[in-house]
Amino acid sequence: MTSLFALATAVLWGLADFGGGLLTRRLPALTVVVASQVLAVLALGAVVLGTGAWREAGPQLWFAVAAGLVGPVAMLSFYKALALGPMGVVSPLGSLGVVVPVGVGLALGEEPGAGQFAGIAIAVVGIVLAGGPELRGAPVQRRAVVLTLVAAFGFGAVMALISHASSNVTGLFLALFVQRVVNVAAGGAALWVQVRRGSPALPDGTGLRTLWRLLPALAFVGLADVAANGTYSVAAQNGPVTVAAVLSSLYPVVTALAAYAVLRERLRAVQAAGAGLALAGTVLLAAG
């Protein structure tokens, strides 16, 4: 069960990242983040009301609040690092956030078997290589590396926090709703500051029309991200966090394959090798 939900998380996160990447070609990155999360809040709000999930409110929701605060910081750091580039270095480094939930799992006493340890090591290497790291070319700015590591830690922290934010399904709906409300508040504040500094929230001229036309895609990105957090929480609560975290972090492979299938982007040899290693690590983890 853990493996299936974790792999579902990887698929959902990978598709959400791919969709978000396409949308940032039409809209500012922060606008994509805020708009997609607003749509996710509306959908989750309806679910919370329909299921009576608000009755599950308790101290554990502070984990959801913390995840909601950390998430936008991680995302903005990641986007800034991508702007400084090169992307072929930034993207794989960003996936190293998996060490946070894995470390938490080990600290809480989880003891993966030898085969699972090997699977974790192989899968992590595969995840990094699947991003297509640039081993040659222009030097990487120190600021880009620092921002990427901040983003990676943030992504990993969100995974660790959200897994502790609920203990049942209805509680999970409420936790995800709270997380997204905080996401919107923090992201909206950042967007307001950005606009005040002179950066437009929408493209000039046809901004509102473009936003309206892209609403279905924005909704998909927001809901896929929410669903991924939900399936990860279920995976982490029903099995070893170390296994759930590594399998969920296979999303760069999904993103690369989506780009190949939709945009006809050719996979570099290092990406193909990384995908193969990630698959091999997945088999070892699932078998353990």
Automatic annotation (TrEMBL):
Keyword terms, alphabetized: Membrane, Transmembrane, Transmembrane helix
Keyword Transmembrane helix listed: yes
Transmembrane segments: 29-49, 61-79, 114-132, 144-165, 171-193, 214-235, 241-262, 269-287
Coiled coil: none
The keyword Membrane is assigned to this record: yes
Gene Ontology cellular component annotations, sorted alphabetically: membrane
Pfam family, one: EamA
Residue ranges of domain EamA in the record: 4-130, 144-285
InterPro entries registered for this protein in UniProt: EamA_dom, EmrE-like
Family the UniProt entry places it in: Belongs to the EamA transporter family.
Protein name per its UniProtKB record: EamA domain-containing protein
Species of provenance: Streptomyces globosus
Organism lineage string: Bacteria, Bacillati, Actinomycetota, Actinomycetes, Kitasatosporales
